[in-house]
């Protein structure tokens, strides 16, 4: 699951971008200014930053510089109304990975975000295989003991996180951060419910184990 921070000072546009990306199965947070963006970046790990260059107070250029200087793996897509070649060269020179001018086609934004998301972290293995479960991140397929398992997007993302942990315990908080976004209620039972439906779909014998007071694992 790719986690994105949208930084845009026009609330309607920020919400529209965020909602559209959520419909594409991304986990999305929103910041309306540079200060809020830096605060969220200091707390959360983001794969992609969709960054308006023209922000009040702390400008997008400064947010970009802070992220680049931190050495974070976060990839940066700058958004701006400035369409001149010199502006694009300047933005990329700050360390941004891509540059998109307003107005833009949403399909192009999604394609660019997907491309940056693939570059944000170390490549996934072509197939994750554990305890008789085979998950293909590229084809988005899951099989158990040769049987195809149909999962929802959240169930697939949760299973992927558990398999990537290679037997380690993953806390509910970590799953909330990776599979959902900051809008989810931290006291929600959504992780427990999703684990229950995932277990049911994977069938017997159960492979997702609960470690009381700690989290979940596939040993």
Automatic annotation (TrEMBL):
Pfam families: Response_reg, Trans_reg_C
Gene3D superfamilies: 3.40.50.2300, 6.10.250.690, Winged helix-like DNA-binding domain superfamily/Winged helix DNA-binding domain (1.10.10.10)
DNA-binding region: 125-219
Domain Response regulatory: 3-117
GO molecular function: phosphorelay response regulator activity; transcription cis-regulatory region binding
List of residues that carry 4-aspartylphosphate: 52
An annotated GO BP: regulation of DNA-templated transcription
PANTHER family listed in its UniProt record: REGULATOR OF RPOS, TRANSCRIPTIONAL REGULATORY PROTEIN CUTR
Annotated organism of origin: Actinocatenispora thailandica
Domain OmpR/PhoB-type positions: 125-219
Protein name: Transcriptional regulatory protein CutR
Any one cellular-component term (Gene Ontology): cytosol
